[in-house]
């Protein structure tokens, strides 16, 4: 059986993050263009559509990349990898049905999106198709350069289409159609490269359901913070006018991208920490502490830079019509350090020790508190009310995790281990 290869950890992380930047961070380049070309109202519609698309993508993605990357690394042969690919196709297809119904319902209930029904339907299709991106498979099979090349093609195509055809506020309806065309090309290229590695495009329904079962805890926990952030703009579009959606949308995009920077690392490091828990628990704890320190430091730097630069950076990048986004961004950025601590405790301390039930309960509690609080708060205070609901949810999750750790006795084991630098990833000796 193939083992995790520690000597390649840093190279794998670098390649994974480069692919991530190309895939998810580049839309930030388009936000100033949308704001200046479409105006605040059109920008609010685009933000609501992106929020819905990203929410649907995360529902269909369902933690599959992390589970699939782990399974692929340990697959014995090409037949095993082919079975993994087929089960992922089936699992995603099964989730497409309820997710599409949810997406269409969200379009109908959102005054912002229902005013543009074709745009709304295209948004739903974009979210569903994006979840089938095979980048996780390229990365886990050592072909990060192939994934990066495909991502760059998609990046260049979407930018060219947007800059070529979107020139006036009246071109709003074209935005998601052009993004969908780029996504179709990118997906076709990805599956064209690996088409011979399938033994069959789809597995049995049972295999797809089994994959969903094995991925549900990772989805519930790791997806909670990012999913709630991406869904918040869509929910706000139901509760508040377009101006509030636009004000919140700037902060939502920036915070969602910053927060999800921790996600690619999980595809590489969760299998490694899980392996070390069984072989050398103390070394596993040191590595987990290093991961926590690295991402927490990065999040605190992000908070400081946001406080210092937001007042002049937002108007410079987006235009004077987005001044109302500045106070929202300054408060919303406080979600970053809270979420980093929460995700690291779950991914690198609890999941490797099979505390899945604890994480599932904590994730559900967080979602319930955030959504219940968001309805009255966002209805009365718009964007700032939605931010308050998100902060309340993260604080609830942190409190729930700490209480669970204390009661289970894991806090003593975690506290007894020192820390190690994050990039000291090559273990000494065997393993």
From TrEMBL:
Q: Which Pfam families match?
A: Polysacc_synt (PF01943)
- The answer to whether keyword Transmembrane applies is yes
Residue ranges crossing the lipid bilayer per the database entry: 12-35, 41-60, 91-109, 115-136, 148-166, 172-194, 218-242, 254-275, 287-309, 329-351, 358-381, 387-406
**Which coarse location class applies to the principal site listed for this UniProt protein?**
membrane
Which compartments does it reside in? Cell membrane
Which InterPro entries does this one have? Poly_Biosynth_Transport, Polysacc_synth
UniProt entry tagged with the keyword Magnesium:
no
Keyword annotations for this protein, in alphabetical order, are: Cell membrane, Membrane, Transmembrane, Transmembrane helix
Membrane topology designation:
Multi-pass membrane protein
Q: Which family does it belong to?
A: Belongs to the polysaccharide synthase family.
Name of the protein this chain belongs to: Oligosaccharide flippase family protein
Organism equals Paraburkholderia azotifigens
Name the lineage: Bacteria, Pseudomonadati, Pseudomonadota, Betaproteobacteria, Burkholderiales
